[in-house]
Amino acid sequence: MRYQISGKNMDIGEALQTHVKAELGETVEKYAQRPTEAVVMFSRVAHEMVCEATIHLSTGLTAQARGTAHEIYPAFEACREKMDKQLRRYKRRLRDHHRDRVTPVEFDGGSSYILAGNEEHEDVEPESLQPMIIAEMETKVPTVSVGEAVMQLELGAQRMLVFRNSKHGGVNVVYRRDDGNIGWIDPRHIK
């Protein structure tokens, strides 16, 4: 497994990197036999240390966790415990989907935009009704089943996931509703 361990505006020592590789590697190996990459980012927010970890699995799923504490090692341990809990919770589901899927998940490219509104002059009519685009980036759109998309949504920290439905090839969306349930949008049924 490839590790990318870094700090945002801080130096990460060799001892911490070794500790992260050993502990996270042990946790991931226990539940996911073929992880491909782990990205761990340490940062400081006010007086707290923050550890964010993202693990990409060979099944195409991505697990994310975040931990905070006053010291850097306890922040990592809190993050690792959350990752352990997520992977343990979905261990059976990951194995079941792995048996059904014989090929890796395919990803298509897509554009992702962040749009900004004009909050200063809300009373004034704008020259153009188009919002200003403040960020444009590439994103990956997986080709998975609805069940795999829901599992990906629950494993990650996202509120919604756009995916290509492996059953019919159309673009679908699953999202976390305010009532705690999961919503599914399949536009091919909309008339």
Q: What is the secondary structure topology, with strand pairs?
A:
Elements: E1 2-7, H1 14-31, E2 35-45, E3 48-57, E4 62-69, H2 72-89, H3 91-100, E5 106-116, E6 132-144, H4 146-155, E7 160-165, E8 171-176, E9 182-185
Parallel strand pairs: 1-2, 6-7
Antiparallel strand pairs: 2-3, 3-4, 5-6, 7-8, 8-9
Uncertain segments: none
| Structural class by sheet pairing and helices | alpha+beta
Task: Using the alpha-carbon principal axes, give the shape.
Answer: globular
Q: Helical percent range?
A: 25-40%
What top-tier CATH class of the largest domain fits best? Alpha Beta
What assembly state would you assign to the polypeptide chains in this entry? single chain
Mean pLDDT: 79
**β-strand amount:** 35-45%
CATH homologous superfamily of the largest domain?
Answer: Ribosome hibernation promotion factor-like
Known CATH architecture of the largest domain: 2-Layer Sandwich
H/E element sequence: EHEEEHHEEHEEE
The total strand number stands at 9
Family: Belongs to the HPF/YfiA ribosome-associated protein family. Long HPF subfamily.
Subcellular location: Cytoplasm
GO cellular component, one term: cytosolic small ribosomal subunit
GO biological process, one term: negative regulation of translational elongation
